[in-house]
Amino acid sequence: MIRWGEEKRQADPGFFCRKVVEGVFHPVWLVSDTRRVSDIQWFREAYGALTQTVRVVASEQSRQQRGWVFTTGVDDAESECGLDNFGAFDWVIENHGDEQRLEEQLEKLVVFVRSRL
To answer: Is the model's pTM score more than 0.85?
Structure first.
C-alpha cells in the first residue's frame, strides 16, 4: 500500500489532495494529515490565501513520555519528516504536555477559523 501511494505521488503529486476535495465545497477545510511539501503546495495553488498551515510540535522528551520510540525506516521517512524543514507554517501549536498552554493556542486557532465562516 505504501509503495502504491508513493508511485501515485511520484506520477502526480496532487493525486491524493484532489481526491479529498473532489466534488465537495466547504467554507473551511481542516486537512489533518499533510505530510509533504507537495501537499501544501497543491493546496496553496488550488486555494491561495485561503490556505492556512498548522504545525503541531512536541519535544522528543514529551513524545517519549507518551510512549513514542524512534523507529529507523519509519520515523525518518519522508512521510514522517518531510515537513520538518518547511518552516513557513501559519500556525505552530506546541504540544509539550502543558494542557493549559495547548488549550490557549487551540482557542486562538478556533477563533480564527470561526472568523472565516
So the answer is: no
